[in-house]
Each structure stands twice: as structure tokens, then as C-alpha cells.
Amino acid sequence: MRLEGRLRELRLTREASSGNHLHFDVYRFSLGERRLAFYCLRGNRCVAPFLAAGDRVEIVADAPLDASGDEGLVYALRNLEDGRLYLSHGIFRIRFQDRAMTVFTPRRLRELRLMLGALALPTMLLIAAITVFAGPDPQWDLLWLCAICFATGFAAIVLSGAIARALWRRGWVTPRQDLTERVYAAFALAPPLAASLPPRVYEV
User: 26 pairs with which residues across the strands?
Assistant: First the structure.
């Protein structure tokens, strides 16, 4: 459902996953007669939405059809006061599996590859130093085995991402991907497979 109006009864709460690995800012507010919740990842590299009570917004949400008291789930929110658009992908890693957008967008997969590469390179250098200098004889077989394991794992991640994107482009979409496409289309955005988002559009 697409809705527009002014934020009323806006309040910010903070929640964490069961293992406390992921932390979320939760913006709860009323729009007309409906109560809604907008989840955003919280962390050093996460974008914090700039919202204030009374702001005029446009949202796409899984919202109740009437003022039943049930809390609707916001997928995307555009603050019409400054034009910024926020897309809520992060919460679906741990909650709302039955009505979730996809978590693994091309932007997210690129970040994961960079993170894995940044972790793997110093790990490989450390293993190389240990195998070459720790004993009287260099353990070349161990070094090659570690290198092969790393290359195989990295190739599997890249290949699985490429296959998923190819299937998506050919129209073989999952319910999550279909929902994501509809949310993006509601705001006239490029398809979710785009390598980057337009200015003032943020994944949260």
C-alpha cells in the first residue's frame, strides 16, 4: 500500500537481534489512522534517517486496510521535506520472513565481497608467514592448500551471486525479489539489480 501524510506520534526505539549481532533503530509513528514501524540498521556505516514529527512523507508499507490497531511494516519512506528516500532492507535478515524484501541486493553483495577480501588478504599473509618462517622447513603444501581453499570459497561466492542475478534478470524471481521490484517501481527507481542507487536514496 502506498500512503502519504504527516508523521504523527513519532518515537524512536532501539532493538537488537537475539544474538545482539544486529542493532536497529525503529521509528514508530502514525500516518492518518494507521500505526506504522520503520526499521533501520544501526552502526558505524549505516545511514540514519532524518525524520521529525510533522514531516510530510510518502511510504510503501504492508499496512492494515483500516485503523484496526495492528502495526504496519514500512518498506520504503521518502521524506518530502528534503527529498531523501530510505529503503528498508536490513530488518529482513532476522524478522518478517513471510513479508520480506530481499536482503542481498547487488550493492550488499559487493560490500560483502570487499569485506571478505579485506579479511582474507591479511589472513593469507599471516598463514604464509607462519608456514615459511615458523619452522626449519617451509610448509609449501600447507600454503598452497590454504590458497586453494580461499580461491575456491571466493569463487563460489562470486559465482552464486552471478547466477542469482542472471536468474533474476530472466524473470525467475522469488517472492522477496518480486516484492522488492514492486517497492522500487512505486518510487520510479531503477530495478533493484542496478549497481548503484541514485543520489539521496539509501539502503537502511
Answer: 13, 39
How far apart CA 72 and CA 143 sit, in angstroms, is 53
Q: Terminus-to-terminus CA distance in the chain, angstroms?
A: 20
pLDDT digits (tens, 9 = 90+) for 173-189: 888 888 899 999 999 98
- Global pTM reads 0.76
- Distance set, CA 139 to CA 125, 127, 135 (Å): 14, 10, 8
Residue 25 forms beta bridges with which residues? Answer: 14, 40
**162 burial via Cβ count (<10 Å: 0-12, 13-18, 19+):** exposed
**Which helix (H) or strand (E) is 29 found in, with range?**
strand 23-31
Q: Angle CA(170)–CA(172)–CA(176) in degrees, nearest 5?
A: 125
CB 184 within 8 A of CB 176: no
